[in-house]
Structures are given as structure tokens and as C-alpha cells.
Amino acid sequence: EGTVEFRDVHFAYDPDRQILKGISFKVAAGKTVAIVGPSGAGKSTISRLLFRFYDIQQGAILVDGQDIRDVAQESLRAAIGMVPQDTVLFNDTIAYNIRYGRTDATEAEVQKAAELAQIGSFIEALPAGYKSMVGERGLKLSGGEKQRVAIARTILKAPPILMLDEATSALDTHTEQEIQAALDLVSRGRTTIVIAHRLSTVISADEIIVLKDGRIAERGTHVDLLRER
Length: 229
Ligand code: ADP
Ligand code: ADP
What we know:
alpha/beta, 29% strand
């Protein structure tokens, strides 16, 4: 359970500009594939396509051997945990944001997930910009804290497949280590596709895909890629 396959995927947001030009890779259940490459190469686009925010023009994306066009949107999204780089929070408490998609979770489960993601101390807080009858109030969360809300949500959701976009922004070392620990925890034993910016992720990945200008320029384990140089 939890295999992902991209089969000769072609995609363009605008018909006159091809973004992905024939991408093929397979992630076996429980394995990790890291996607690296320069900005604009199409890495985030791959994550959006897996979640079916857009439909591809050619090729196929399969989850557990099934074309995602034949899977109901809810079951597809229930199977995938998405931790984007820029998490957009709902206009409600952190606890609500963590619980999203798992409304049956108990308060203790929400609290536990929050603690694992290092945000246990402020789950009743409201994000900055929260609008209420008494005007604007709320807690200003950093990018890293918002990402931890997404991690807590994913810990609670416990999906078979994980789609992670590691932060590029210069988080302070302590925060970065805490986020890394939470990400390691949530990806253990799950099929993971990670847009990797950290060397540690790349080293431990079962396969690294180097994306350049919408094509796979190189692929292999960290050792393989070093040997080729
Ligand atoms: P990466 O994650 O590797 O930096 P992206 O997948 O975000 O790359 O983007 C690949 C290309 O697609 C970029 O040139 C980007 O400008 C373009 N792009 C991304 N999103 C959209 C969109 N919604 N509409 C049109 N072009 C887009
Ligand atoms: P539901 O399955 O409850 O209808 P959605 O399909 O909206 O929920 O989203 C399921 C999961 O996808 C949620 O965990 C949410 O974090 C994530 N998600 C939804 N929209 C986006 C988005 N635009 N970017 C990144 N993640 C998203």
C-alpha cells in the first residue's frame, strides 16, 4: 500500500510553455524519493499534480497502480499527506487547523500530534490576521511554525503517502533540527516524495531525482550520483 508512479508525465500550465517534459519515476511502498534541482525546474509542480490540483496533458500518475484520474478526489487526498513549504492556515485555532481532515480525532490526539511537531504550547492560539467581531487579533506564526502545523496535521492524519517540501528559508538551526526531527518521525515507514533542500535527506533517500528544466537530468542514490562526477 502506498506506491506512487509517474509515467511519462507532461504538463503545462499554459499551452505555450511546457513545464514537465516526460517525467517517469516509481516510489515503492515505504521508500523515499528526493527531488532536487534549481528553482523553476518543476519540483513543486510534481507535488501539485500528485494531489491533482491540475490535470496532466500526457502520461499517467498512478497511486497503488490506479490512475489518479479514476480515483475519487477525497480518497486520493485522504491517502496523501502534504506538507507544503508555505502552509496557508484556516482562519481558526491552531487545534482546528491540526484537526482538519480528521474531525473524529480526540483532543488528546490533537495535543499529542502538536507536541510531536513542537507546537504543543499554543494550540488554542489563533493565527495572526484572525478577524472577529472585536477586531483583528491573533498570534503571528513564523513560516517554520506554520509548517509545523502542517506536520502536526499530517502526524494526526497518518496517510500512507507523504509529499514534503522542505523549507529553503534560513530557519535558525534549533528550529530546523526540530522540524527535521518531526519530519523524520512522520515519514518513517511511509512512502515519501520529498522536495529536498537538506543534504541529510538526499543522503538517506532511496533514489534522488535531479530535475532540470522539466526533465530528469540525473537519477540514482547519493553514492551513484557522486560516482558519476
Ligand atoms: P520549482 O518548485 O522547481 O521551483 P515550480 O514547479 O514551482 O518549480 O515551477 C516550475 C515553472 O512553472 C516555473 O517557471 C514557474 O514559474 C511556473 N509556474 C508555477 N506555477 C505556475 C502557475 N500556477 N501558472 C503558470 N506557471 C506556473
Ligand atoms: P478534505 O479531504 O478534508 O476535503 P482537502 O482535500 O481540502 O481536505 O485537503 C486534504 C489535505 O490537503 C489537507 O491535509 C490539507 O492540508 C491539504 N491541502 C489542501 N489544500 C492544499 C493546498 N492548496 N496546498 C497544500 N496542501 C493542501
